[in-house]
Amino acid sequence: MKYEDKTKEQLIDELKYLQKTKESYNCLIETITFGIEDIDLSGNILFANSAQHQQYECEEGELIGKNILEFLPSDEKRNSLRDYLKFLVKEQPPPTSYVGQKKTKKGRVIEVEVAWNYRRDNQGQVVGFTFVNTDITERKRIDEKLKDSEKKNRTWLEHSPVCTKIIDLNFNLQYMSTAGINALKIDDITQFYGKPYPFDFYPELPKDSMTKNLNKVKETGKIITQEASVANIDGKELWYQSIFVPVNDAKGRIEYIMVVSIDTTERKQSEEKLLATTVSKDYVENILKSMVEVLIVANSDATIKTINQATLNLLGYEEQELIEKNIGLIFDKEQGLSSWTRIERLIQKGVVHNVETICLSKDGRRIPVLLSGSVMRDKDGQIQGIICIINDITELKQAEEKLKRKEDIIESATSCIATANLDGQMTYGNPAFLKVWGFEKAEEFLNKPILDYWAITDRYEEIMEALKTKGEWKSEIEAIRKDGSFFPVHISAAMVFDAEGNPSGLMSTSTDITERKQLEVQLQRSSKMEGLGNLAGGIAHEFNNIMGAILGNAEIATMNLPIDSDVRENLENISKSGERAANLVRQIMTFSRMDVTCLKPINISSVVKDALQMVRSTTPVAIEIRQNIPKECFTIMADTSQIYQIILNLCINACQAMGDGVGVLEVTLKNERCEGCFLNLHVCRIKTETGCLQLVISDTGSGIPLEDQGKIFDPFFTTKEIGKGTGLGLAVVHGIIEKHQGMITVESKIGKGTTFSIFFPTIESEVHKEPTKEPILKKVAGGTPMRHILIAEDEPFLVNMYQKFLEGQGYIVTTCGDGSEALALFKKNLDKFDLVFTDQAMPKMPGKYLSQELLKIKPELPIILATGYSDLITEEDAKKSGIRKYLNKPIALPKLSQTIAECLKKSD
Fold first, then answer.
1. Half-sphere exposure of 91 (CA within 13 A, CB side)
2. pTM of the model
3. Is 307 within 8 Å of 401 (Cβ atoms)?
4. Measured between alpha carbons, how far is 136 from 40 in angstroms, rounded to an integer?
5. DSSP per position, 147-172
6. Are 751 and 703 in contact, with CB atoms under 8 Å apart?
7. From edge to edge, which strands make up the β-sheet containing 109-120?
8. Distance in angstroms (rounded) separating the CA atoms of residues 812 and 789
9. Regarding predicted confidence, which is higher, 159 or 304?
10. CA 695 → CA 409, 640, 650, 690, 743, distances in Å?
11. Sheet of 788-792: strands edge to edge?
12. How confident is the model at residue 812 (pLDDT cuts 50, 70, 90)?
């Protein structure tokens, strides 16, 4: 039927239908998104919107830095695009859209319609391109099935009177369709691209009202309609109805404004004729089904009338399973929308964007989605239906969950994590940061200068330079707590960059290294003590050799004097002084070997007395030291050096507690029968049937506060000032006592002093007396005949003394100055020597190695090893290697004579 043959009523009915179709089309345009990407001249992607990432099936931000050639399906197409870009840069023809193929990250080939334009710098030079990519894969597939409809659509597009314009958010014209160009009779439309719309070329355009409408669309996101007249270049008045439609990106933000202007000039003469040729029903339906977003159109009672293929793909239904069903079928009844009432409440304002809800697939899967919708109303404002656009955000939710897990890790991390902006203002601190810095809540430090909490003012410029050039900085620095106290931390700082690669802030990870620093100090002190021990060992060896010669010659001289000689008393005084000096050296050596743990039966009384002699030498004279040490006490299994350490630690602490240098230090040693008894009001935990040995050390110092008494044995706990104590002394004492299966108690009162009581289990019931000094040996006429002794000693005065003494005892003596000489002599005379006496520290061959070589030759050979000090061999090691006796220098001559006699007797 021709237009002229239609009645007025028919034309009006068609007009109403077309008007309703036009409103649906306008609502659809509101939610359409396009893929947009900016590239440089080489094709490297500098920017891509969310829709573009989704189009390439990439994670958000993953495209940045990649080359668009990577997303072309073949080398031929890559080379073609590369040549095309070079041509565009060189010739700069007007932008022309084209259709091509792209390959997604997952390998899927899609068809895209590409509109592009140049990007220029301030001088007008081309520096890159902007591509607008529309995925038309689905549309092309449908177009193949609907070729007849496609021909009609193309014919309509080529001859459509609708003028379409694209306006960016700065209101600059980006595109105008052919209908508008022809109507306004513009020869070169490109001269207006990028310029404000409406442009000055046509002063008759209602600029104020159009600009006002553009602003309103930009601010509210609503569709606005305006009808106005304009004169073309020939002065002819044209009437246009312009529809301002906001076009959103994938995140629901307005990306640009589409202005669809319909020429209503003839409508003024014949409205029916205009409307009859305005919109193609087939074209609109084709667009609906080609959308990649889920599209659902429902009528006023929530009955689904139209869906697209994306809906079926997402939810897994067939089309007939959803058409004429309530829209609530696809929503979670608890979180989503199950009735028209809920939909009406949700979109009561007419339009909603990106409301998060849950869709249910046919198989029951819960799919997180963003819902956008628009109400369709008739000319009287009555609801006719609703258009819903749904975007699957499953991947977004997964990314959010990953981000949440990362945030949980940061919140629960033991390391201190903090961030600041580029101005150095604190923006975040995790719980560990709050705890270490002494804050109760984040508000106490947020937006405050980072330099308030880091003592790095003099290094700030250096740090910022390192962060800008290297991206990170690591160091050990001083930090400042909330209370103003300083503490050491190890910090690792890094620059944080935004999506465009620009610095956006700072992040630091810090660890409190106070304990590590304390351990380093202890290690340094331990190294010093080790060095002191080595030095003391070397001195002791030489000193003992000298003392051995002094004592030995004094004894020999005494032996040769008449009983009534006046000189005898002088020589005896020399011997006594020498023995005191030797004892002092033994005390120093014992102290220097405190790390040795060798438990053996000892009489602790002599150890206590020796230790107190050392304490006395380092204690102010105004402090009185009282000793209650019995001559007889029980025997315990102990390490002599560690008993020294217990006494020295406790006594030194006691003297320091008497800060004015005046007071009484009292040390008591006593035997206790403690079968289930109470010792100083403490229950004895020692399991023994023989009793306990109790060591009590008390002072009249300042005392220990009651609240600290339960912590004094904890490592690093100290009440002393910084630099005057490490908090390890009492912890070491407690550890030693535990190793000896003993116990320690403490009683203290402020201003009254402190008493430490140590209990050791005894190993037998009988008591041990202190050893008595051996008498000076008198000259013996005629020793064991024909017994030959080989002496290896590098100190000449000791060699002479030993030889003179032993020959006086009746032995044959041969001497050598070093171990190598002694070994060579022994090999030449295998049956000549009955016993070998050797020093440990000798040049060329120490006594230990000489003994080993001799025993290889003659395993039954009695060998006596003497040492002034050696950390290379102990008495136990010597016995295990076959050495008969082990003697510490200086050696008393009676002891030497007795030891030689015992060794020779066992060999007979």
1. 9
2. 0.35
3. no
4. 25
5. HHHHHHHHHHHHH--EEEEEE-TT-B
6. yes
7. 45-48, 35-40, 126-135, 109-120, 98-103
8. 6
9. 304
10. 53, 14, 11, 16, 11
11. 812-816, 788-792, 835-839, 863-867, 885-888
12. very high
- Contact by Cβ (8 Å): 218, 225: no
Three-class DSSP labels, 461-529: HHHHHHHHHHCEEEEEEEEECCCCCEEEEEEEEEEEECCCCCEEEEEEEEEECHHHHHHHHHHHHHHHH
Burial class (CB within 10 angstroms; exposed 0-12, middle 13-18, buried 19+) of 500: exposed
The pair of structure tokens assigned to 467 is 């962060």
| DSSP single-letter state for residue 901 | H
Mind giving me the DSSP string for 85-147?
Answer: HHHHHHH-PPP--EEEEEE-TTS-EEEEEEEEEEEE-TTS-EEEEEEEEEE-HHHHHHHHHTH
CA gap 831, 811 in Å, rounded: 16
The string of pLDDT tens digits covering residues 137-148 is 877 775 666 555
Contact call for residues 734 and 744 (beta carbons, < 8 A): yes
> What spatial distance separates the first Cα and last Cα of the chain, rounded to whole Å?
147
Alpha helices in 723-769 (DSSP H): 729-739
User: Degrees (nearest 5) of the Cα angle 714, 715, 716?
Assistant: 115
Alpha helices for 829-892 (secondary structure H): 847-857, 875-880
Tokens found for residue 827? 């090999």
Looking at the predicted structure, is the pLDDT value of residue 239 above 80? no
Q: Which of 663, 664, 684 minimizes the C-alpha distance to 674? A: 684
d(CA 549, CA 796): 10
According to the model, what pLDDT value does residue 681 have? 37
pLDDT of residue 777 exceeding 80: no
Residues 343 and 818: their CA atoms lie apart, in Å, by: 107
Most confident stretch, 76-85, 272-281, 706-715: 76-85
Tokens representing 312 are 């079926």
